[in-house]
């Protein structure tokens, strides 16, 4: 079997966990993915099967879209809700819509981010999260990224939601280049508003041309495999690369 599966990654699973499950379900070893999605996050994970694993280099740098919840009130060592609390903001202000827009506007366009220690990025051959788990921190160089869209979203008719512990949540939609750490973007938003912040929720809704509407859950995938209907959800390599420019070659030119 060759092609691409769009999986809705469940919370708590690593991208490698999903690949391992797909290998077992499809009974094939040639399975990979096009980019890590943090364990606490959910949503679109592009899974490559069979000969389609060779397409990773063409899909890994695709644009991404996310639904995020930024929580103001404290920072964490991981930048998300799974980490240990660090700096706490004693009082979190209920900002105006204009103040929020100014903060977000300053993060749109071409900016730089310093990769977090709790990330899969390698520095001198070592994954940063492996160093972080040993209590080590090293200098990281900022990387250029592009935030195409960063918009606040209302929930139940309001822009900010106050939690029982005094923290405040802001829902946001992000469209960004590959390599963007939305956790760091949440922290940067907090800095611009004068409050510690971390990422409380993250859902990837699009990666390149693949949307969450195209995705199947692992439970759905199991039922589809059991029904021997897998071909229905496999995307061909040609279809996956249809957004890319192509050149027609004659038989002689391919020699």
Please outline the helices and strands.
Blueprint (H helix, E strand, L loop, with lengths): L2 E7 L5 H12 L4 E3 L8 E8 L6 H4 L4 E9 L1 E3 L8 E4 L8 H9 L3 E5 L8 E2 L2 E2 H6 L9 E11 L6 E3 L5 E9 L5 H12 L3 E11 L2 E2 L6 H9 L10 H4 L15
Parallel strand pairs: 3-13
Antiparallel strand pairs: 1-3, 2-3, 4-12, 4-13, 5-6, 7-10, 8-9, 10-12, 11-12, 13-14
Helix pairs in contact: 1-6
Describe the fold and architecture.
- This protein is α+β, with helices and mostly antiparallel strands.
- It contains 7 helices and 14 strands.
- It has helices spanning 15-26, 56-59, 97-105, 128-133, 182-193, 218-226, 237-240, and strands at residues 3-9, 31-33, 42-49, 64-72, 74-76, 85-88, 109-113, 122-123, 126-127, 143-153, 160-162, 168-176, 197-207, 210-211.
- α1 (15-26) packs parallel to α6.
- The longest helix has 12 residues, at 15-26.
- The radius of gyration is 20 Å and the shape is globular.
Keywords:
single chain, 255 residues, alpha+beta, Pseudouridine synthase, 10-stranded mixed beta sheet, two-stranded antiparallel sheet, 22% helix
In short:
With 255 residues, this protein is of the alpha+beta class. Helix content is 22%, strand content 31%.
Oligomer category: single chain
Major sheet, described briefly?
10 strands, mixed
Return the structural class. alpha+beta
CATH architecture of the largest domain: 2-Layer Sandwich
User: What proportion strand?
Assistant: 25-35%
Contiguous helical run count: 7
Find the count of extended strands (DSSP E, 2+ residues). 14
- Provide the CATH superfamily of the largest domain: Pseudouridine synthase
How widely separated are the two ends?
Answer: 27 Å
Query: What does the overall shape look like?
Result: globular
* Sequence of secondary-structure elements: EHEEHEEEHEEEHEEEHEEHH
- Mean pLDDT over the residues: 91
The domain count comes to: 2
Enumerate the spans where pLDDT stays under 50 for 5 or more consecutive residues. none
């Amino acid at each position: 079997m060759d092609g691409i599966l769009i999986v809705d990654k469940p919370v708590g699973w690593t991208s490698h966990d999903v690949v391992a499950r797909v290998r077992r379900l499809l009974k094939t070893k040639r399975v990979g993915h096009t980019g890590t999605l943090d364990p606490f996050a959910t949503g679109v994970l592009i899974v490559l099967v069979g000969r389609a694993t060779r397409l990773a280099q063409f899909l890994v740098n695709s644009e991404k879209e996310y639904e995020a919840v930024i929580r103001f009130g404290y920072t964490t060592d991981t930048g998300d809700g799974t980490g240990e609390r660090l700096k706490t903001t004693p009082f979190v202000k209920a900002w105006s819509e204009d103040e929020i827009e100014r903060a977000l506007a300053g993060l749109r366009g071409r900016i730089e981010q310093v990769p977090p220690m709790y990330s899969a990025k390698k520095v001198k051959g070592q994954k940063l999260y492996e160093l972080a788990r040993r209590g080590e921190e090293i200098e990281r160089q900022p990387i250029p990224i592009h935030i195409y869209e960063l918009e606040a979203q209302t929930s139940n008719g309001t822009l900010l939601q106050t939690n029982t512990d005094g923290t405040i949540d802001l829902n946001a939609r992000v469209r960004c280049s590959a390599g963007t750490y939305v956790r760091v973007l949440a922290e940067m938003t907090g800095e611009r508003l004068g409050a510690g912040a971390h990422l409380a929720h993250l859902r990837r809704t699009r990666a390149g041309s693949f949307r969450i509407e195209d995705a199947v859950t692992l439970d759905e995938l199991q039922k589809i495999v059991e029904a021997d209907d897998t071909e229905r959800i496999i995307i061909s390599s040609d279809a996956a690369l249809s957004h890319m420019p192509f050149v027609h070659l004659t038989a002689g030119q391919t020699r």
